[in-house]
């Protein structure tokens, strides 16, 4: 006890806290980095190279060694080593500096893509993990799931066709549905379409789209389209996006003369003393939570009105089928209504 | 030939699945729901559809209004708590005088008359019996008052409105509005609060509510807080203000508990519980007159009796342990208790507490109610001052001043008192609650988190307070 002084004790305490923080802080903690480095082996590098080549190929871009090293987050020497090995094993070949996939390599790449997208689907449907994290988690999972496990997962999820961003999931034989539609900035003013795909890379732009509350499967109508901004109307609300952000949305043009009904809105925009009929629940509301809403009577055709406004603004209580049910704003924004 | 056929069928089914697309399953479900709704609309006649809009709607308008919603809520919950704490004093002292002051001496003299060896009577009567009697005397009355009142409010339909009003606060920390109810229940008893989390149907929010329930100051801890605040906090302000200051200190601790509840809920939802499924729905049922007697009966049987029984089961061995460690000597003269207290004094000092308090919190894991009696007994034992009822016999004094004198003789300062109040809020749940958490979650992992995390928080907070206090004063 002779050496005790409060300052000394505090200093030791804060050193210990700082040490724990450096070791275990999320993502950048040394412990996680070391753990990740431990898991990064040749297999991971090879699979990531294959996947990148596949993505370049589908977007009809040519790729050489230099670009590949830039895109991938591995040590230069490791990548070169991996590519050497892949060439020997007939997964890739090079044609005057441009790297290309062999038939076998493409199959392998498709399997990785399949696991990645299946896992995103799983995270979306069966867990409460936030959208922002799907991609990164799937990135690490795609190297771990074996072929049989992927099969089991697919069966468990009911052989889904698309991942939650709207990307098609290849079947085990390599068949893939095609995404209909074009990038939003290419649509002329006045065209009506449905969002079929939301690109989740780069992350910064994806986060902006999430923050705007733009959902898969929403119908939209382009109001303004120029070099500085794209304005469209969807579900009773008006969205303004920069073209670079809008380019990450794929929209399928509705060819037939569909009447985009007036008064279509989100339940969150309902005012007190207004009544409305429910049109449906957005695809964004998935799994358990979707079933719960259906159980409570939020089905097509039910009439709904506001029962109580919350003193703190959220959640509000809605009167449906004679019962008062409180829903949070983000839930209400995923229910489509038609105001009477 | 046959196999060939099956393969063909599987292939065809895969092909068809591919063609009908992803939305088929959802559309089917939805149309079944819609059909069912149509059928109900045609065949079921309702008469009370209009009724809701009269009385219920009026009550709802008031209890969820911006002006009145929160004052009414604080008033009702405050009244329930006040009635419990103040109202429980009388039956508690009655039970105490019966079980501790009357039956205990009778048992002792009875043991003497049949010439029971001192160690057996000490173990059974001073150890086991006393601990059980103490827990019953302190625990039963508040629970028997709190639970029925709370259940009546629940039955009437008011509590879901509280959840409705407060949800956005809880939402910000990743929790469910109904956690407001389980938290209030925790003010009565954490074990009951943990059971009450069954009303939260989203797995993630329910775990959060279970793990953070311990931050609600329970009935077993209110008396400790009030006693220590009266002795030490009340003494530093002018006499006319002393009761007000100590009341403020206790409320401050309870509010601090809520702050920790929100903070820890937020941290949990952002870290370890991130991946659990989260849904939200909250039904606001119509008001109805509570079925008074049935409610009283079920709340007494379902909540009070079960919790009390579990507490007794855990308190009995604790009493035995307390008596044993104060009476068994290791090497030379020292009892196990004195040896442990010496060993923990250094660490206790670092936290602004002392070895006696730490030992008391270890042996009193089964019930917070016996912390103060244990502290008094151990303090008298190690300081060797007069008073008390002998080694291993817990006691409490009627006079608050005398209690304060013993504690001060044990070296207590204002810092010790403040840190004891903090540590009483931030330490592991009692063993009844721990067991209940295990029963409800069925998971060793979450039970461990719920038990260990508050102690670590308690160590950190008391440590920081102690160092800063010593730097300033």
UniProtKB/TrEMBL annotation, chain A:
The chain crosses the membrane at residues 6-24. Residues 182-253, 265-339 form the Ferrous iron transporter FeoA-like domain. InterPro entries: DtxR_MntR_Metal-Reg, Fe-transptr_FeoA-like, Fe_dep_repressor, Fe_dep_repressor_sf, FeoA_core_dom, Iron_dep_repressor, Transcriptional_repressor_C, WH-like_DNA-bd_sf. It comes from the Bacteria. GO terms for molecular function: DNA-binding transcription factor activity; protein dimerization activity; transition metal ion binding. Pfam families: Fe_dep_repr_C (PF02742), FeoA (PF04023). The keyword Transcription regulation does not apply. Keywords: Iron, Membrane, Transmembrane, Transmembrane helix. This is DtxR family Mn-dependent transcriptional regulator. It comes from Formosa algae.
From TrEMBL, chain B:
InterPro entries: Fe2_transport_prot_B_C, FeoB_GTPase, Gate_dom. The chain crosses the membrane at residues 68-90, 220-237, 244-268, 307-325, 337-364, 370-394, 406-426, 446-469. This is Ferrous iron transport protein B. The keyword Membrane applies. Pfam families: FeoB_C, Gate. One of its GO terms (molecular function) is ferrous iron transmembrane transporter activity. Coiled coil: none annotated. The keyword Amino-acid biosynthesis does not apply. It comes from Formosa algae. Keywords: Membrane, Transmembrane, Transmembrane helix. Residues 250-298 form the Ferrous iron transport protein B C-terminal domain. Residues 138-228, 308-442 form the Nucleoside transporter/FeoB GTPase Gate domain. One of its GO terms (cellular component) is plasma membrane.
């Amino acid at each position: 006890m002779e050496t005790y002084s409060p300052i000394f004790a505090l200093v030791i305490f804060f050193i210990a806290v700082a040490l724990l923080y450096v070791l275990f802080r999320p993502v950048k903690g040394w412990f996680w980095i070391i753990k990740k480095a431990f898991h990064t082996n040749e297999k991971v590098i090879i699979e990531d190279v294959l996947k990148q080549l596949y993505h370049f190929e589908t977007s009809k871009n040519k790729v050489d060694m230099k670009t590949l090293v830039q895109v991938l987050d591995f040590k230069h020497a490791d990548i070169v080593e991996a590519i050497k090995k892949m060439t020997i094993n007939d997964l890739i070949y090079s044609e005057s500096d441009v790297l290309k996939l062999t038939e076998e390599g493409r199959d392998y790449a498709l399997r990785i893509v399949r696991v990645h997208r299946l896992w995103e689907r799983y995270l979306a449907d069966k867990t409460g993990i936030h959208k922002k994290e799907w991609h990164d988690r799937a990135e690490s999972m795609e190297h771990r799931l074996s072929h049989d496990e992927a099969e089991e997962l697919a069966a468990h999820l009911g052989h889904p066709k698309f991942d939650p961003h709207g990307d098609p999931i290849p079947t085990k034989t390599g068949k893939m549905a095609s995404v209909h539609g074009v990038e939003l900035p290419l649509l002329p003013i006045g065209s009506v379409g449905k969002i079929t795909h939301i690109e989740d890379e780069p992350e910064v732009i994806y986060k902006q789209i999430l923050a705007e509350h733009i959902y898969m499967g929403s119908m939209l109508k382009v109001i303004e389209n120029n070099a500085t901004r794209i304005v469209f109307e969807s579900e009773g609300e008006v969205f303004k996006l920069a073209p670079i952000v809008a380019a990450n949305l794929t929209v399928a043009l509705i060819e037939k003369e569909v009447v985009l009904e007036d008064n279509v809105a989100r339940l969150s925009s309902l005012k007190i003393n207004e009544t409305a009929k429910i049109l449906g629940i957005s695809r964004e509301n998935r799994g358990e939570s979707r079933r719960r809403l259906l159980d409570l009577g939020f089905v097509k055709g039910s009439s709904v009105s506001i029962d109580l406004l919350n003193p703190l603004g959220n959640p509000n209580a809605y009167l449906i089928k004679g019962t008062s049910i409180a829903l949070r704003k983000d839930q209400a924004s995923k229910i489509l209504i038609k105001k009477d | 030939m046959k196999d060939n056929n099956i393969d063909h069928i599987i292939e065809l089914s895969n092909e068809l699945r591919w063609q009908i697309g992803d939305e088929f399953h959802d559309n089917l479900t939805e149309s079944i729901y819609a059909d069912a709704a149509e059928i109900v609309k045609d065949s079921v006649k309702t008469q009370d559809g209009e009724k809701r809009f009269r009385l219920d709607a009026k009550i709802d308008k008031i209890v969820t209004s911006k002006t009145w919603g929160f004052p009414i809520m604080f008033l009702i919950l405050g009244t329930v708590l006040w009635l419990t704490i103040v109202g429980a004093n009388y039956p508690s002292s009655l039970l105490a005088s019966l079980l501790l002051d009357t039956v205990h001496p009778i048992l002792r003299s009875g043991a003497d008359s049949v010439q029971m060896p001192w160690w057996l009577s000490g173990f059974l009567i001073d150890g086991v019996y006393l601990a059980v009697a103490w827990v019953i005397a302190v625990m039963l009355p508040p629970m028997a008052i709190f639970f029925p009142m709370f259940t009546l409010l629940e039955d009437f339909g008011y509590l879901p409105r509280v959840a409705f009003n407060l949800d956005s606060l809880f939402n910000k920390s990743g929790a469910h509005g109904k956690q407001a109810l389980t938290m209030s229940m925790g003010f009565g008893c954490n074990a009951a609060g943990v059971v009450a989390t069954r009303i939260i149907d989203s797995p993630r929010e329910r775990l959060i509510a279970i793990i953070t329930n311990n931050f609600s100051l329970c009935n077993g801890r209110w008396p400790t807080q009030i006693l220590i605040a009266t002795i030490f906090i009340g003494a530093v302000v002018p006499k006319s203000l002393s009761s007000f200051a100590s009341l403020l200190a206790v409320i401050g601790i309870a509010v601090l508990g809520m702050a920790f509840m929100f903070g820890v809920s937020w941290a949990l939802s952002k870290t370890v519980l991130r991946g659990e499924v989260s849904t939200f729905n909250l039904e606001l049922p119509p008001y109805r007159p509570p079925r008074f007697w049935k409610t009283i009966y079920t709340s007494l049987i379902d909540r009070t009796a079960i919790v009390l029984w579990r507490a007794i089961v855990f308190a009995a061995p604790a009493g035995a342990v307390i008596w044993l460690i104060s009476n068994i000597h290791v090497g030379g003269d020292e009892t196990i208790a004195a040896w442990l207290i010496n060993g923990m004094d250094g660490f206790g000092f670092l936290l602004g507490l002392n070895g006696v308090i730490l030992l008391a919190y270890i042996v009193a894991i089964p019930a917070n109610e016996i912390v103060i009696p244990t502290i008094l007994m151990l303090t008298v034992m190690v300081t060797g001052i007069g008073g008390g009822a002998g080694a291993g016999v817990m006691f409490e004094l009627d006079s608050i001043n005398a209690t304060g004198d013993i504690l001060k003789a044990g070296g207590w300062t204002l810092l010790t008192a403040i840190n004891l109040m903090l540590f009483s809020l931030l330490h592991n749940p009692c063993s009844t609650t721990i067991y209940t958490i295990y029963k409800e979650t069925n998971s060793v992992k979450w039970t461990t988190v719920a038990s260990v995390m508050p102690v670590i928080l308690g160590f950190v907070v008391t440590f920081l307070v102690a160092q800063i206090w010593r730097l300033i004063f």
